[in-house]
Amino acid sequence: MAEKPFQKNQSLLPDHPEEKFSVLMRSLPGMAYHRRRDEFWTLTYASEGARRLFGDLAWEKIRSGVTCLGNMVHEESYPHVLESLERALARKEPYQLVYRVNSLLHSDRWVWDQGEGVYDEKGHLLGAEGFVTDFTAFKTMERELREEIGRLRCREDSPAPAPVIPGIIGQTPEMMAVFRLVKQAAASDAAVILYGASGTGKELLARAIHDQSPRRNGAFVPVNCGAIPENLMESEFFGYRKGAFSGADRDQPGILDKAHGGTLFLDEIGEIPLSMQTRLLRAIEGGGFSPVGSREIRHPDFRILAATNRNLEEWVRQGKMREDFFYRIHVVPLHVPSLKERKADIPLLVSHFLESLPGTPPLGTAELHRLMAHDWPGNVRELCNVIRRYSLLHSLDLPERGKAFGVRAATVLPACGTLQEQMALMEAAVIRKTLEETGFHRSEAARILGIDRRSLYTKMQRHGIGKKESHCGNFSSQNK
């Protein structure tokens, strides 16, 4: 009588338990492993499936016992993998990871890694054991599906399309709400106040309101109120006549004259001193103004748009802003979300910035994870600066909050010069470094340096440190 097939197959297996285990490991479609808990998570055991995943050369290194986690995981995925692995093991939880690996067989191979920690009788972590299998086909299907969904969305006929402003990047609900309000505000001539942190793109939105308004053919005049010294505000806003003061060798039109027929954008309006608020309010409400050194009353026609990162109602309560001035500019409030409030827009913004930097390598999954996890105190401006540094250095450098800047004297001091000259150079270097580390978030930079914002502006002007050094266009496709 012939033997049953099952008995034949069973008889082919070796009798020794260790040999049976070895045959089983060789037949697995992936790689079983054990990693020792040391500084490098050294691989102390790997089944022969590693040969099919990584190639013969890598398999020989694995067998020699010199392979660690960092050798296997692609550098773009490594920080995320290490953090996720150690976090799960610290909680004594199993882990499931998907990441890109270094393979000599394929340039873009992904794996699924599932495992758990190994602990001694006292609960101390000894290592990790798990199983790795090829996940590349699934990642390819995922990418193709995502692309197809994107194509279908582009073709989908929506009965009420979302109001998107040309040149401004954003698809989150928070930005859609801003776009709707911008379109509504553009149709009127009412004063609009944009609230938002530095670097969120308030000026771009103000310009969008102007560009879609009946005043689009007039001038858009942006003014940084915090950068104008108090003793020059009157002549800057109202202009002056020849001979009005020493150095006035010709008639000079003021900001209000330049905005005639268009839009006046007062950025950082909370920095206007009380004395100037009174005179500016009179001009805004139709009472007119006189250039310095003249009795002529001028009545310009312009629309007011303003922006601030301060709580102006609190400013009024503290007596730093006139109540009548507040109500004149606070007709349509528009709150611009910070980048951390709309992190889903980060991939779109990154893609936009990379398009403007030809030759820059794309960001990997792990790098995008880092960008999404960052706090972004400098908002879109800081993100743009980070991508520009990435374009130059080909490494993602995210500034750590509260980290000492450590400017070396040897890099900023001349070989000779007076003490005053060397101190001026040191001051300029510290200010520039602080601004760079905060993504040119001037309020944050002033706080770190222990000075007020107006003092920071004065020092920036003295040392020739301009806002243009960090201009990235925020979320606009145009540098405005």
Terminal Cα span: 90 Å
Largest sheet: 5 strands, antiparallel
- Discrete helix count: 21
Question: Numbering strands along the chain, what is their spatial order in the largest sheet?
Answer: 2-1-5-4-3
What structural category arises from helix and sheet content? alpha/beta
Instruction: Fill in the CATH topology of the largest domain.
Output: Rossmann fold
CATH class of the largest domain: Alpha Beta
Percent of residues in helices comes to: 40-55%
Principal-axes shape call: elongated
- Low-pLDDT stretches are 1-20, 156-163, 402-415, 467-480
Strand tally is 10
β-strand amount: 5-15%
Mean pLDDT level: 79
Name the CATH superfamily assignment of the largest domain. P-loop containing nucleotide triphosphate hydrolases
